Amino acid sequence: MKVFLVGMMGSGKSTIGKLLSNILGYRFIDMDEEIEKSEGKRIRDIFKQRGEEYFRKLEKKLLKEISQRREDLIVATGGGVIKDQENREILKEHKTIFLMVEPEELLKRTEGNDRPLLEGGKDKIFDIWRQREKFYKQFTTAESTGLNIWETCVKVLYKVMERESLSIMDSVHKVLIERKALEDIKGDVVFTTCSVQKIYGEFLGNPYIFPDGESVKDMKYVLEAYKILCDIGFSRSQVVTGVGGGALTDFTGFVASTFKRGTKLFLYPTTLLAQVDASIGGKNAVNFEGVKNLLGTFKMPDLVVIDPLASLSMNDERFKEGIIEAFKMSLISGKGLNYFNDELLMRKLRDVEKIIEFSVKEKLRIVEKDPHDRGIRNVLNFGHTIGHVYESITKVSHGVAVGWGMIKETEFFMKRKMSDRIVLKLLEDFLAKLDIGSLPSLDRQRVYRFLRNDKKFQSGRVRIPVIRAPGNYDFVEVEIEELMEVIW
């Protein structure tokens, strides 16, 4: 497959092209760079010395040659390649995507650039847009105004890739892993967030939109959701669908499990963290009085549909937190440690899909043995007891907090000769590669308050999983005061 990216200067063709190359494992070609190499001159110098007509001949020749190559390619074209009808006919023979960015945003993006066609003033970009608009719109459009580079990548992937079912699991509840699954969202009422609506709005119909992130896990939004369901006469036989990250799936699960004593529930997790952990296993919760997940229920979703492409739309911090939760599952099981390689960090799609399927299978295996979190399922709390303290006090992302929590809990048990040095070494090396920052100092009184209100504590003690070695774990009862000391 060859994917050609067309669009105005500043639309991100080269940047997006390189990212797509990493994701799909295709070779990347920037046509402007290829011409500069062959001529030994920058584009602006070719324009000045030989003129635009000469440049367009070079461009046409290169486009013909690339189109005939027998390899998978991602190609960033020059902004004006579509002006020529013969070029347009060549591009129509392949998957060509127009990166649509409004001219006002293009003007901001090109500020300070020395592009030859803008020498008459930056406002010329509006004239160029008017001249080319009819040509660009002959191709499949990926609207990327207001989107970041990763969100734009997913927009393009949805245009060029085929829908494909990758895995079906059905133990404690049904899970489908399917590329482009968000094209066909099922359910009677859809709850989603602002960010998800911005990227996938064309597939969502008329959803009810809630805030992004942890702020949605608040009783005022639960009450708002109840009112929505009441106002439309929602029945227990109908389906509440949640499309979003872990906070949104937690929130939707809580609403579905408590409204009329429980309705049907479908979840479409869109972040890597939600896909490998939060949406799986039927634990639903909201926050209360500043304490994370203080109010919660157990209700298995009737269906979880995971689209790996959606996980790629996350910024670096959000993507990394999903990897951290998956790495936790690898340490617990002692399997899959080789999945966490450089290609995963580059978001190579096949590697991302591997850790999603691996993590879901491992979590379902544990949940099946202990669906209500009374025994073995507690091992999934590894890193979370201390991690939730970091998350609540510093407001750092959940995944980063869990990473710090795993380090601190492992240090705690190493001092007691209960955890092998290899566990800490694996954690330190992996988290250093992710570059999640150093551990902050915390106020002792605030730490005590959060630990005391942690739902896992009983009579001042908490049952914490200890990873003795990868795949070998146990549980230990720990006093609050003992745990307090490890944070400093």
Briefly characterize the structure.
With 488 residues, this protein is α/β, with parallel strands linked by helices. The chain is built from 21 helices and 17 strands.
Walk me through this protein's architecture.
A hairpin with a 2-residue loop joins strand 12 and strand 13. The strands form 4 sheets. A 7-stranded mixed beta sheet has the order 6-7-14-11-10-8-9. The chain has helices spanning 13-24, 31-39, 43-50, 52-67, 85-92, 103-109, 124-136, 149-160, 194-200, 219-231, 246-258, 272-278, 308-311, 316-333, 342-345, 349-369, 384-394, 398-415, 421-434, 444-452, 480-486, and strands at 2-6, 27-30, 73-76, 95-100, 140-143, 164-170, 174-179, 189-193, 208-210, 239-244, 264-269, 283-288, 291-298, 303-306, 457-458, 461-469, 472-479. The protein has 488 residues and is an alpha/beta fold.
Keywords:
single chain; about 500 residues; alpha/beta; Rossmann fold; Dehydroquinate synthase-like, alpha domain; 7-stranded mixed beta sheet; 5-stranded parallel beta sheet; 21 helices; about 20% strand
> If you average the pLDDT, what whole number results?
92
The CATH topology of the largest domain turns out to be: Rossmann fold
The gyration radius over C-alpha positions equals 25 Å
Estimate the strand proportion: 15-25%
Placed side by side, the strands forming the largest sheet appear as: 6-7-14-11-10-8-9
